[in-house]
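Folding Task

Wanted — backbone structure
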Amino acid sequence: MEWSISKLSCLRQCHRKFFFAHELADYHFTHPIRRKAFELAQSKNLKMWQGSLIDYAFSDKLIAIYQRKQRPDFNALADEMLDIARRQFAFSEQQLYRDKGMTKSKAGEAFQVLDIHESGAPYTESDVETIYSTLRQIIIQIPEYPSPEMGKSLHEYLSSSNYLQPNINYWHYQFGEVRLKPQIDLVRYSGKSIHVIDWKVSDSYSSDYSNQLYLAGIVAYHNIKKDAEKKGWGLPARGDVSLFEINLMNGNIKEHAFTRESTAGALDHVYRFRNEQEQLSSDKKWNELNIEDYETTDKRETCVFCKFKSLCIHLILNNNRYDEPEYYKLVQNHQLAKTQVSV
């Protein structure tokens, strides 16, 4: 079984949400209800969209420049990201993702589904302009951000690296019957020092990502050690590895100690909840699953902010049968009701 923190979190929020996001959603157009679940799963509110743009600017644009040992032109990067943001907004606004001839690979950087267009979430033009201005501001101020190394700016820290390894999703570590395969945002090497970094793009100070980062550290440590053994290099010690959250919204840095105790605690969490995320579906195919086996939550706040709320309501009202024209009528009626309330 492959461990997934996002799956477990989704399951704990609402079993029905888990069904839509992880059992039903599929990018093919063969089954309209599966495609709609996929589009809703892809959708983002404006804050999430802002975060994804900032993360993309760092992970896919900026780090590549540092890998080439070049100095970034932050103004040019800001201009490029604003162009991408505007193309994404237009793509979503025109609902091009509903075109059967359109794929994510064909759309490229323009692909985006925003809830303001898909589900009629309320917004103003100034909300969108704030996204653009915040994106530019954060990119421009990157050189002045602090870094995990005392006395170095984030720019100096990245420039002085021996090697940068971003967006790692192919490393894994087998823990009993569970395969750990986290997304690792960045591994930075400098001498013996190995920094495992998790970018954060939220203003929240309350979220706890420690277990997620501990597991990333475990997987990184074992894969780097295995690679060193193959090449006959000196093996890294546990003390060579440091774990950092870096908040790209404000530059705040939080370190998590990579110790035997902390990693044992993270693995114990995996062991205790290893079966929970697979308890409903097991190895069944999507058409062998019964939506009625997936209970809805009784937590109102979970429903209010759920991407799948309109689809869930539609199926409840329609005896679990998906009728696309009726679904869109429901969405339009909700949009009209929100407009009337705001007026």
Summary: The radius of gyration is 22 Å. DSSP finds 14 helices and eight strands in the chain.
